[in-house]
Every structure is written in structure tokens, then in C-alpha cells.
Specification:
By secondary structure, the protein is α+β, with helices and mostly antiparallel strands. Helix content is 14%, strand content 34%. It is elongated, with a radius of gyration of 23 Å.
């Protein structure tokens, strides 16, 4: 590829992405489709330094969140970075408005989850594992390693707040003791020692190496597991500029409303411009730093620099790309989607699906330049360009 450099490739990408944004803006739930260009607001900020934000800290751990409150553009997804001390327990709780999809970065976590049919499952999770709990299913999390554990939680509703979940201590603390006594067969006086407010994350005893039996004598076991060892799988696709691991409802049947990707990009590599027709995208930088460009129609575009611990968001249908901004370090980014099926349309695929003459006329480009465009999907390009 002589004069078709990476800069030229990305320049063409920005030009073509205009049509992508126009399609997205025409969606029925997007009020911008009814406005003139001069009436449109600038593309909102899609970058949030989550790990630099204020944390909720308790005796057993801490949590930071990125919701529609901190990142107003993130209407479809929210995220939490949670750390538990050894033995720390994120107490029994449930989420009324969102399902929970999680990725373990460090340490080991034991979870127990129960559904409305009384079916439950207890699992141990290692770094690189994913869990999924459907909306409204009760669950708890415990660090079973000797070091602090760290995991990222993603929820399929931007209005969700980890600090507004339905926690067991909060609920029982605000329920009359005589009602608890009648319901659970324990004297009302016994509940006087129960917490009156939410504990959120508590210190727990040293966990056993083996999964302990549940209190229930007749336990109903879940037919579909809530655990998927994502990083133990072979990469979904491998390119000269990086690799992608992907998990969808096809590989992880219980995860009906969410899917996810762990993307590794080599120094200078680019996840080419693309869009997702069916889902919003929530991002967390596990390591490295990158540039993410987003296009939102009518000339509105924005490029932000992301560092380790930052969160980002791309609305459904918006054109975007990810570029590793380092010339030495690999980039690893966690990406969650609020749809069980993964769908994407990449720039190279879109262009290659059209006749060359149409492309030349569309971009007022020479036939010679158009003939040198990739005739296949690039997906990830190395620092020197596609196929290099």
C-alpha cells in the first residue's frame, strides 16, 4: 500500500462515517432527526475518568460508578468498578431495573444467585471470567482470594445506580420485627441486633476453598450457568494488529440482554471505524491508553484520549473507532453491549460491498485510489495499515 497510508485510511473513514450518523439520527427514538443542522447541540462528552472519581468506601471494599448522572450520554448502559478486601462481601441484593454483566480483572470472586423459580447457583470466578445475572435476580459477591479483588460491573440501563440497589440489610432494617418473626419463625427480639441501615460491603470470615453447601435442604440448581470463562477461550478473531475475544448469548445462553468483548490492540493499531446497529457500547480501559473518535451526524465529531481506568460510551448507531495511542504498550479494553447478539458494520466491509465506480463518484476520488481500497473486512489494522 503505497500512498494509501493509515492517515488516508482514517481520513476516508471520517468522511464515510457521515452517512452512518445520518442513519442513526433517523431512528424513531432520536429527537435530533426532527431538527435542522444548525439547531443540533454539539456531540456530548463520552469520556469519564471513573477511577479518579469519588469512591463509596466501606469496611469490606469500595465502588466507583459511571451512570447517566456522571456521564449524561450513557442512557443505555452504566458501569461500576468494585474492589473487595479479602473476605469482603457485597451483601445480598438485587437490581430492579437492570441486568448485571461482570468481568473479573484481579483476584477470585464467589457468587450465589437465585431466580424467581427458586433456582440458584454458586460459582467461583477467576480473572478473565464473566458472570451475568438477569434483572431482579437476587445475588451476593465475596472475595475468596488472599488479595484485594477487582471487577467491572456493567448494567443494561444508564439510569441504574449501584448505590441505589435493593440491599438485604436495608430492607430487613426497615421491616417491622413482628413481620420478620412471623415470616422467618425467629423471635422478634432477635432482629433487634440486625443492622438498621444498609451495610453495602461488609467484612466476612475467611472463605473456604471449597464451595460450602447452601442452607436449603432441597436446592434447585440452575440449568444454565451464570459463569463464562472468557479469557480461557481462543480469540474470536486474530489480526496482525491485535485480537478480540467475544461472548454473546450464543456462547453464554443465560446472557440474553448483554454481550461483551475484550479487545487487545498492539501499539499504534486501530479498531477500524464501525458502528453497532443493535446496541449501545460501554467501555473500560483495563490497561494502556488510546484515542476514541465518535461521529454523531451533521458534522458532529469528537476525539477523546482515554487512560487506564477511564470509562466511555458510544450510543447505538454512532460511528466510532479506537486507536492505541502508545508506540510501546498494548491496549486492553473491556466493552459491553446492551444486547445479547453482537452486531457491527465496519467501514472496510461497507466500502467493499459497493461498486468501485459508485465509490469514486461518492467521494469524488480517483478510480486508482478506490481500486487500492481493501476488498475485505479489515476490523483491526496494524500501525502500518490494513494487511501489513
Amino acid at each position: 500500500m503505497t500512498d494509501f497510508t493509515r492517515r488516508g485510511f482514517l481520513g476516508t473513514a471520517a468522511l464515510v462515517a457521515g452517512a452512518v450518523g445520518i442513519e442513526a439520527a433517523a431512528a424513531e427514538d432520536d429527537p435530533r432527526s426532527y431538527k435542522h443542522k444548525e439547531d443540533l447541540e454539539a456531540l456530548p462528552n463520552f469520556h469519564y475518568a471513573m477511577e479518579a472519581s469519588h469512591a463509596r468506601v466501606t469496611e469490606g471494599g469500595s465502588a466507583r460508578e459511571a451512570t447517566i448522572k456522571q456521564l449524561p450520554i450513557s442512557k443505555g448502559l452504566a458501569g461500576v468498578s468494585m474492589r473487595l478486601k479479602p473476605g469482603g462481601i457485597r451483601e445480598l441484593h438485587w437490581h430492579a431495573i437492570a441486568a448485571e454483566w461482570a468481568f473479573v480483572i484481579k483476584g477470585r470472586v464467589r457468587t450465589t444467585v437465585i431466580g424467581p423459580d427458586g433456582v440458584s447457583e454458586t460459582n467461583d470466578f477467576n480473572p478473565g471470567d464473566v458472570w451475568y445475572f438477569p434483572r431482579g435476580h437476587g445475588h451476593l459477591l465475596q472475595n475468596i482470594s488472599a488479595e484485594e479483588c477487582h471487577f467491572i460491573l456493567i448494567f443494561d440501563d444508564g439510569a441504574f445506580s449501584e448505590f441505589g440497589t435493593f440491599s438485604s440489610t436495608d430492607w430487613l432494617g426497615h421491616t417491622p420485627p413482628h413481620v420478620l418473626a412471623k415470616s422467618l419463625g425467629i423471635p422478634a427480639s432477635a432482629f433487634a441486633r440486625f443492622p438498621k441501615e444498609e451495610l453495602y460491603i461488609v467484612n466476612g470470615r475467611t472463605p473456604s476453598k471449597e464451595v460450602p453447601p447452601n442452607h436449603a435442604k432441597m436446592q434447585k440448581l440452575a440449568p444454565n450457568t451464570h459463569r463464562y470463562p472468557l479469557m480461557d477461550q481462543e480469540p474470536y478473531e486474530t489480526f496482525r494488529g491485535g485480537i478480540e475475544r467475544r461472548v454473546t448469548v450464543k456462547e453464554f445462553p443465560i446472557s440474553t440482554t448483554m454481550s461483551g468483548v475484550v479487545l487487545n490492540l498492539d501499539p499504534g493499531a486501530v479498531r477500524e471505524p464501525h458502528w453497532h446497529p443493535n446496541a449501545d457500547e460501554w467501555q473500560y480501559i483495563i490497561s494502556g491508553h488510546c484515542h476514541i473518535g465518535v461521529f454523531g451526524s451533521s458534522g458532529r465529531s469528537r476525539i477523546e484520549e482515554f487512560h487506564q481506568g477511564d470509562a466511555g460510551y458510544v450510543p447505538r448507531g454512532y460511528g466510532h473507532y479506537i486507536e492505541n495511542a502508545s508506540d510501546r504498550e498494548q491496549l486492553q479494553i473491556l466493552i459491553g453491549f446492551n444486547h445479547g447478539q453482537y452486531e457491527e458494520i465496519s467501514l472496510s466491509t461497507w466500502l467493499a460491498a459497493n461498486p468501485e465506480g459508485i465509490l469514486a463518484d461518492n467521494f469524488r476520488a480517483s478510480d486508482d485510489l478506490v481500486q487500492r481500497l481493501p476488498d475485505h473486512r479489515v476490523f483491526i489494522a496494524s500501525k502500518d495499515g490494513p494487511g501489513v
